[in-house]
Amino acid sequence: MTMQKRISVPKTYNVKRKSYTWITKASPGPHNKNALTITVLMRDILGVAKNTNELKKILNKGELLVDGKIRKDIRFPVGFMDVVSVPESKLYYRVGYDHLGRFNANNIKEKETGLKIVSIKNKIRHGSLYQITTNDGRCINVKLTEGKKLATNDSLLIKVPSQEIVKHLEFKSGAKAFIIGGKHVGQAATIKDIKEDGIVVTIDKNDYKTIKNYVFVTGENKEELSI
Question: pTM here?
Fold first, then answer.
């Protein structure tokens, strides 16, 4: 089934639920279920295309890229930190969250389109390599010496689409972060303290507590990329 009722879409979808009955359902792909379709993003949220037919023309011409790769499926799923661009029209966006936990996308500079931050979700050793699994479904192989330094909840600044690692961003006190869940979702923050029970004390204007899974590291002393 390629469609679903608008009333049933996740709260992360920033769309009017009662304006139309149906909405495009995401294909299997990156981000698991925590994603929305490229159609919803480009048509309903950004207004780059007025309707699905207009978007199909852009896709069929190969003008739309996600993380540096051409995508032609109107149901292709996009999620947090994905880079969506239409170079022919000089449109460059990075997917994020607003303060209500809904997907949005902000304009970024062209020079940032080749970079992305991903969060490490798992690390498995395979012989002489470590296989790193990230929040957007990537599998990145690294040498043992490099892999030993990496831990779950750390982030990596990578080049896209090559997946070359540019910088390791450690999940630690003093690191810059973005809150991706809970009542403080959509806020930039600094990690102040990490408790053994998985509770993280973060700070922006006021100290507050949240859990590790809601904290996405974005830099050391400053954010590596605009969100």
Answer: 0.89
Residue that is written with structure tokens 């600094």 in the block? 190
Residue with tokens 């949005």: 104
User: Phi then psi for 178, rounded to 5 degrees?
Assistant: -125, 135
- Cα 111 to chain centroid, rounded: 18
Please give the pLDDT value at position 15.
56
Helix-strand-coil split of the chain, %, nearest 5: 15, 40, 45
Q: What is the pLDDT of residues 159-182, one digit of tens each?
A: 999 999 999 999 999 999 999 999
123-137 burial, b at 16+ Cβ within 10 Å, e below that, comes to beeeeeebebbbbbe
174 burial level (CB within 10 Å; 0-12, 13-18, 19+): exposed
Return d(Cα 185, Cα 60) in angstroms, integer. 35
Which residues are registered as beta bridge partners of 18? none
Q: CA 140 → CA 110, 123, 164, 182, distances in Å?
A: 25, 10, 9, 29
What is the Cβ-side half-sphere exposure of residue 102, based on CA atoms within 13 angstroms?
A: 12
Tokens for 51, please give them: 């309707």
- Residue 52 CA to residue 119 CA, distance in Å, equals 32
Tell me the two tokens of residue 122: 């798992």
Locus of tokens 């699905």 = 52
